[in-house]
Task: inverse folding
């Protein structure tokens, strides 16, 4: 999917250059993404999430000094604040602040790795506490030997996973509703919060007791990728499905884009992303509205970013992956977003990308010379 996003950026330069009178498509640093993961193979769960992401310190107002501290420490791969049930083994009923350091294979012993993470964490925790108005205290240092924590957090290997060491600080548990509003209030300017869109959906989803909120900072050289996400899991519901309607899991009747994008044409800044891991490898999927395709740089991409509809990146049966583009519209209905799938023969939409494995894409890709970042995630097999 990362390759698809890069190819879509090419579409901005190639396809629209053919029409001098077309409204010029643009890319903003602020992105909103709704993701539905239907896992019939492994967990039998459906997971819905809404992510808000940017690389701009004007859109997510992390103090410049804190941002610089994180980026200047080349050992740090991520800073995470989450109320997940178990951020690492041994932590229960807490909100975690995790400062994650990468440990190269064969580098030092356990004590050395723990000390390196503790030093990195201690250098940041006072600044984090001050900005978010919390009082997180040191809990432990956890060395990740596998990807169990990665799956719990539902994020990519840059956040946790084998080779990562986490300095963990905790505060008593907070509900997602409280946590989301506290973090977004500190981070996101009132002007953006007041423009609705996926922000309103995330805020509403956070009110459910079973939802979980996570804020992540990933340093990427001269920029930081910052993401605020709310996710809710629907356990033991995936295998009975033969259709997916994202609005059901997002608990809204209509999905609206943020008015933030009404200043121009921003076709890639609001995305609905669906990933289905079907029980049967002969399964295929379709939708009411499909976007036409073209090939740019040996990559299959939507032919016209002004058109709304589903673009299927993968429909191989092993993994069905699609993203909904709003085109020039600012809302999507149940009929727009419904995807049907099953063993019966459905119109085939061949994938352009060969998959050797099902992998998480913490999907932080820098497009357009590193200025525009887009987030997509999948799921890693056991």
Result:
């Amino acid at each position: 999917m990362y390759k698809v996003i890069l190819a879509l950026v090419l579409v901005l330069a190639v396809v629209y250059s053919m029409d001098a009178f077309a409204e010029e498509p643009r890319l903003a640093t602020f992105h909103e993404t709704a993701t539905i993961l239907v896992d019939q193979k492994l967990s039998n769960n459906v997971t819905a999430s809404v992510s808000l992401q940017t690389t701009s310190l004007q859109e997510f107002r992390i103090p410049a000094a804190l941002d610089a501290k994180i980026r200047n420490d080349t050992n740090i791969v991520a800073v995470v604040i989450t109320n997940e049930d178990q951020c690492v083994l041994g932590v229960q009923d807490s909100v975690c602040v995790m400062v994650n350091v990468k440990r190269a294979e064969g580098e030092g012993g356990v004590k050395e790795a723990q000390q390196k993470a503790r030093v990195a964490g201690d250098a940041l925790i006072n600044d984090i506490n001050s900005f978010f108005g919390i009082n997180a205290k040191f809990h432990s240092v956890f060395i990740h030997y596998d990807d169990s924590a990665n799956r719990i957090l539902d994020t990519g290997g840059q956040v946790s996973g084998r080779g990562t060491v986490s300095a963990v600080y905790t505060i008593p548990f907070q509900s997602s509703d409280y946590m989301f509003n506290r973090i977004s209030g500190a981070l996101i300017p009132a002007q953006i919060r007041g423009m609705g869109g996926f922000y309103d959906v995330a805020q509403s989803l956070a009110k459910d007791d079973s939802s979980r909120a996570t804020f992540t900072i990933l340093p990427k050289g001269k920029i930081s990728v910052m993401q605020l996400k709310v996710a809710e899991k629907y356990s033991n519901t995936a295998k009975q499905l033969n259709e997916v309607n994202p609005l059901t899991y997002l608990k809204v009747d209509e999905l609206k884009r943020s008015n933030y994008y009404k200043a121009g044409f921003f076709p890639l800044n609001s995305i609905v992303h669906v990933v289905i891991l079907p029980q049967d490898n002969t399964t295929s999927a379709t939708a009411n509205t499909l976007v036409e395709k073209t090939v740019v740089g040996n990559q299959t991409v939507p032919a016209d970013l002004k058109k709304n509809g589903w673009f299927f990146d993968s429909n191989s049966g092993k993994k069905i992956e699609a993203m909904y583009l709003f085109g020039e519209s600012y809302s999507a209905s149940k009929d727009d977003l419904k995807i049907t799938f099953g063993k019966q023969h459905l119109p085939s939409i061949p994938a352009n990308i060969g998959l050797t494995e099902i992998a998480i894409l913490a999907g932080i890709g820098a497009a357009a010379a590193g200025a525009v970042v887009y987030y997509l995630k999948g799921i890693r097999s056991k």
